[in-house]
Specification:
Largest sheet of chain A: 4 strands, parallel
CATH topology of the largest domain in chain A: Rossmann fold
Largest sheet of chain B: 4 strands, parallel
Structural class of chain A: alpha/beta
Number of helices of chain A: 16
Number of strands of chain B: 10
Structural class of chain B: alpha/beta
CATH architecture of the largest domain in chain A: 3-Layer(aba) Sandwich
Distance between the termini of chain A: 72 Å
Oligomer: heterodimer
CATH class of the largest domain in chain A: Alpha Beta
Strand order of the largest sheet of chain B: 2-1-3-4
CATH class of the domain at 252-288 and 373-504 in chain B: Alpha Beta
Radius of gyration of chain A: 23 Å
Number of helices of chain B: 19
Number of strands of chain A: 10
């Protein structure tokens, strides 16, 4: 009797809540900044809430035309190009859609789901990248509310990818009104988002390992790109690595480097043995202020590149006025070159692709990779234990 | 087959230990604040048994030295501060030799847990040390968010509670003197009287900090700092020093609030074109930004983060209570120190209010640079009539500040009457920056005059009549005379209304 009265179970079965119908909701996401490394999360998150895949619209790759057509006059301040070009993406989602969007979702990504998290002091986004949505939205609000004027609701949830437990509540705070979202739904959708992101990252890393194994088997070089996620955007990274790849060299991106312990323990064998690092993800030997996720990963990638024999060359991409990259130029150069590895830096990348100079530099890169790779591989290989996990066991 | 050479793997700079035994011989260098704050920090360090020396004030040449020694694209505070340290060490090395510099000096600076380059300043410093051939020189980072960091790097620097409280209270007292200074100088009757008073006041506080009693390293030091009358008594001497300065508050001047990036807004000198003095020469009264607000902001940020965690983590709830208590103790202490100066220095703005004001424009959890404060302070000053104009100082290529300045475009769209002058400081483009500021200042002057005329019309007091009233109460011409805010932004208008009230 008492159990019935005070028990948690309701005395009568409750009617199940009707599922919220979001099948007609159209959500636009600017394809910018750290969305490049978290897009799988956002897609799966929205799908889990019932938004149909065809109604999840990412803006196009960055281009000068996009900025001219949709972003002109919307910039509020001069800053780095990856943030500045967001105006064009916002504008395209507002003005450039055949079927109007209901929501523009531009997340404020405060911390990132970095594979180094837990081994470093922090996994923050770049301060400009995190604040980019607040900056860019002002260009669409300062004179009149362009979003509501076009029947669009603007949502900018503040999210901490490095602390997954906080995300469901952050989603409810940031999207509760716009998507009529409750905590239970948000929790499930966040889980679905992370599952999709983890699965995608694992798949990409496995592909990278296949490439490395083929390079090891054939004793041929590959190149590693050290850059921020948004340099994968053809309008920002200008596909420089694609030009190099056209000459026959496989390209790996640091973001998707394999994290298998057998490989990393082999690569960092000496550092682990001598106690210079606590584990394979420890970067305190080269970078004491390890607060910024993308910076940390670049430094870690430089360390890997300096040690792994078949990475004979590093392509460093950096955008104009990138304040996060600026203090890393010299350390990255010293790390990579200290490991007898070639380094080519493309700095100050902006809206315009300097095709001529890129072509000349690509020719230079290809020349040196062809000329020096076999020596580099041999030198680096000789420093590592004989039993390489990338090669079939004898 | 290539020859096998041993790897030359890069390792980050690690300073040699600074041992307790070295304390008596090694001088701790520091900088980055105003000379007043630095003098009091010096005293707090000397009191703890350290030899301490602030770096010379920043000069234009430091920008060139910094550019020469660091990676291209550094922000101007990084370049200036790196240049300043490098120049001092290079000159010292010429004087006493590099080995003696490495042996006899260390540099202490604030680190950061934030995502901005502020947390990576030391990379520039180490690069500069390399560039001037002083790789063995030692520099140490202080965590600005920890009061009790224990012994670090060999035990020579013991950053315990007593040590940190000395630094923080030195900064608070430096702020209070600076507040008085900027309120007084534009109205001083005898030119130079304010500067002389500031000098005397800082020396009085220097002696107080240098000879503060030892009350333990942790809780004893905390209790004594919070509750003893030691600092308030010393500040009462400061009040007496300023009481002697005669002012004419009926001079109509626009009040210009300085906001912006921490280093630039705090700095007084070539690093920001000495803009505060320049504004005064142009006829303005400057409202300087206290470092105390920055410290309060850091507490507010920590609290916001903990409050979010507390929603899912019961352990964080206890921390929330502790931080709230710390916040209250901090504000109470600041007000207590203000009280010793007749409550004349401005009180700390409520961080929650600043957050709420800024929230439609800039998310309060974005913690790079001054975060929400840039928007929040501008709106707070505008709505509460604390200033006629906001002069916001941004370093060239400052990452967080450019974001806040962008958000200000939206603020301006919705508050077109807010006079806002964002100045980008490169360090070598003075005329351009100052002329931008001057354009807005011209409008601010008109507003100040209009406000004064309106106050005169409302109270029925003419300037002559007001002066006559003042002459009957000579105490009102003291820099420490009561200074109530009567709803006007300008000092002259408020003073006129105060005179009218007293004459009734």
């Amino acid at each position: 009797m008492l159990r019935t009265w005070f028990g948690r179970r309701p005395s009568a079965p409750s009617t199940p809540r009707p599922a919220k119908d979001r099948s007609k909701l159209r959500v636009g996401i600017p394809r910018v900044l750290n969305v490049w490394s978290t897009h799988r999360f956002w897609t799966a998150f929205l799908e889990a809430l019932g938004v149909r895949p065809e109604n999840i619209v990412y803006s196009s790759d960055t281009s000068e035309d996009q900025g001219r057509e949709f972003g002109k006059g919307r910039g509020a301040v001069d800053c780095c190009y990856p943030v500045k070009c967001m105006s064009g993406h916002y504008g395209e989602l507002v003005f450039g859609q055949r079927r109007k969007l209901d929501v523009i979702l531009s997340p404020i990504i405060y911390t990132l789901p970095s594979f180094l998290h837990g081994h470093v002091q922090g996994s923050f986004s770049c301060t400009r990248v995190a604040a980019g949505p607040e900056n860019i939205k002002s260009g669409f609000l300062k004179e009149a509310d362009v979003f509501s004027g076009n029947g669009i609701r603007y949502a900018s949830p503040f999210v901490s990818f490095a602390e997954r437990a906080l995300m469901p509540r952050q989603m409810v705070k940031g999207l509760g009104d716009v998507l009529d979202l409750d905590l239970e739904e948000a929790t499930k959708a966040v889980d679905a988002g992370f599952d999709a992101l983890d699965e995608f990252n694992a798949r990409m890393r496995s592909k990278s390992r296949e490439i490395l194994e083929s390079c090891a088997r054939e004793d041929r070089p590959c190149l590693l790109v050290l850059a921020r996620p948004y340099h994968m955007d053809p309008g920002i990274g200008h596909e420089i690595e694609v030009n190099v790849q056209a000459s026959g060299f496989p390209i790996l991106w640091m973001q998707y480097f394999p994290l298998d312990s057998d490989l990393l323990e082999w690569v960092f064998h000496d550092d682990l043995k001598s106690g210079v690092i606590r584990n394979c993800f420890d970067i305190s030997d080269v970078w004491p202020s390890s607060y910024s996720a993308n910076t940390n990963e670049i430094l870690w990638g430089a360390k890997v590149a300096a040690r792994l024999p078949w990475i004979t060359c590093v392509l460093r991409l950096s955008s104009y006025e990138c304040g996060m990259d600026q203090p890393t130029y010299t350390p990255v150069q010293k790390i990579v070159e200290g490991g007898d590895t070639l380094l080519f830096k493309f700095g100050d990348l902006d809206s315009t692709k300097p095709s001529g100079s890129v072509r000349i530099r690509v020719e230079t890169i290809v020349h040196y990779v062809r000329k020096s790779s076999s020596d580099i591989i041999a030198r680096k290989r000789a420093r590592l234990p004989a039993d390489c996990p990338l090669l079939p066991r004898r | 087959m290539a020859t096998v050479s041993p790897p030359r793997h890069y390792r980050a700079y690690r300073p040699r230990p600074f041992t307790a035994a070295e304390r008596k011989d090694v001088t701790i260098l520091f900088g980055g604040l105003t000379w007043k704050h630095e003098r009091l920090v010096q005293a707090a360090l000397e009191n703890q048994g350290y030899k301490a020396l602030p770096l010379p004030n920043i000069e234009r040449v430091d920008l060139d030295v910094g550019k020469e020694l660091t990676d291209v694209g550094a922000c101007c505070p990084t370049t200036f501060t790196t240049g300043s340290l490098a120049r001092f060490l290079r000159d010292k090395a010429k004087e006493i030799g590099p080995e003696a510099v490495n042996r006899n000096y260390v540099y202490m600076t604030a680190g950061s847990c934030g995502p901005c380059r502020f947390g990576q300043y030391h990379e520039s410093y180490t690069m500069a040390l390399d560039g001037i051939g002083l790789k063995e020189f030692r520099l140490f980072l202080l965590d600005q968010t920890e009061l009790d960091q224990g012994a670090a790097a060999g035990g020579g620097l013991e950053m315990n509670m007593a040590f940190s409280l000395g630094l923080v209270w030195g900064i608070l007292c430096g702020d209070l003197i600076t507040d008085l200074e900027y309120r007084t100088r534009p109205y001083e009757v005898v030119p130079g009287a304010t500067d002389a008073a500031v000098k005397e006041a800082v020396e009085r506080m220097y002696q107080a900090f240098r000879s503060r009693p030892n009350r333990g390293r942790k809780w004893g030091a905390l209790a004594w700092t919070l509750f003893s009358r030691y600092y308030t008594n010393a500040l009462k001497d400061v009040r007496r020093i300023f009481e002697k300065v005669e002012v004419d508050r009926l001079r109509v001047k626009p009040r210009v609030k300085i906001t912006g990036e921490f280093w630039l807004q705090t700095h007084e000198g070539d690093g920001n074109y000495d803009i505060k003095r320049w504004l005064e020469r142009e006829g303005a009264e400057v409202v300087p930004p206290p470092i105390a607000v920055w410290l309060d902001y850091l507490i507010g940020l920590a609290l916001a983060e903990l409050e979010e965690k507390a929603e899912t983590d019961p352990k964080a709830r206890k921390k929330v209570r502790i931080v709230k208590l710390l916040q209250k103790a901090y504000t109470w202490s600041y007000n207590r120190l203000r009280g010793a100066l007749s409550g004349i220095p401005a009180e700390l703005p409520d961080q929650k209010v600043l957050q709420e004001l800024a929230q439609p424009y800039y998310h309060f959890r974005l913690n790079g640079g001054e975060g929400y404060m840039l928007v929040g302070k501008a709106l707070y000053a505008h709505r509460n009539k604390h200033a006629h104009m906001i002069c916001e100082l941004s370093p060239y290529s400052c990452m967080p500040n450019t974001m806040s300045v962008g958000a200000m475009a939206n603020v301006m769209g919705q508050h077109p009457d807010l006079l806002y002058s964002p100045i980008e400081i490169k360090g070598d483009a003075e005329v351009h920056a100052l002329s931008r500021c001057q354009m807005v200042l011209t409008e601010a002057k008109k507003r100040a005059q209009r406000e004064f005329d309106e106050a005169a019309a409302r109270t029925g007091l003419t300037l002559e009549k007001a002066r006559e009233l003042e002459s009957k109460r000579p105490g009102l011409r003291s820099a420490m005379a009561p200074f109530p805010h009567h709803g006007a932004a300008g000092t002259a208008a408020n003073h006129l209304i105060e005179l009218a009230r007293r004459s009734r």
